[in-house]
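Exercise 7 asks you to align residues with tokens for two separate proteins.
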Amino acid sequence: MRMPFSGWSRRRLANVLLAATLLIGLCSLAVFGARAGLHLMENRTIAALAAGRDLSAAEGASPRVLLARAHFLIIRDRLDEAQPLVDRIVRDGEAPLAVAALYDMANARLQLAISHLERTEIDPAIPQVRLAKAAYRAALVRAPGLWDAKYNLDVAMRLVRDFPQIEQEPQADAQETPKRLWTDLPGLPKGLP
């Protein structure tokens, strides 16, 4: 009767298992090294953006790098360039990064709207306030306890009111849209009644 594992088979099996263990260990070490290198490159990019160097984010950049690039653009009033990055972070990133990006963008839009209002430029202020409110609401959906976003949303709500829209039946002979009776910004009307 033959034994299932003879002496030679056991040595061969032990060598194969040892080789497999070493191979798995080397692969794990390579993956760990690659991740550490990638993390180091991301940290360098984030530090350069924080220092004021204008670096673009690569196509497959991590949400952390995208957030740093978006913040770089936001503090330089380049909101139109930052908005696609914020959208990518919200779509692909983790909740805390998405909340930070939305809150940062909303603050910038609200600040821009307030600067328009200080110069009595009402028309460009209204869409900025609406975009800020939408970003605050999106941030609050992801982080309901974010008190600063609640407070800033309240400020934005006071700047531009959300009036309920009255649905009207379209008339067949009407070719123009009806003129709005009041502005969205609260305040005293100018001129005679």
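Second protein for Exercise 7:
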Amino acid sequence: MKIFALDTDMDRLKRRVISAQEREIVTVRFHPFLFIGKVLWEFVLTMVILGVAVWAWTLGAPLLLLSIAVVIAWLVFVFIPIIRAYIDWRFDGIVLTTEKVVIIDQKSIFRQIMQQMNLENIASVGTETQWLNLFKFGQLCFDLKEGTGAKVCFKYVPNADLVSAAISDAVTDFQRRRAYQLSHHGQMPPSPPPR
């Protein structure tokens, strides 16, 4: 389904960024805790809004006016961020191909960001645990080569250590194919078959 900039079909998004000469290695969606953590924060904010409303009511604020203010505040400060958090979790992902890493970041129904990092620009990739490593997710960080940008990190990546290893392997394979191409002055050999 496509609503303005929001595209819920991951396969269609991948077809837009993956050329015929490359193949997909892995696609990673973010861990549900990305959404759960934001919802928990919005629950706390809901309690604060209700607490302020009860306090204002005890001070004599008109109930009708107070109710309208609470509904508007809840819609603006809680409901919309929950919808954004859901979109951010459900429709975002990281796609690794034999040529690049594609970050699909659907911010809302009005904004979509697709960022491509060519494997030749990745200096290293690493991980960092989150939440005491109690859950199977972590932070995935890319160090880009000099002149191409700074460190780029993504939180709540499921099995971040395995994703990091797959990206490192893809970078190594890419560098070997590039070295082969330079040494033989010909075409790069085809990408290796899926493992």
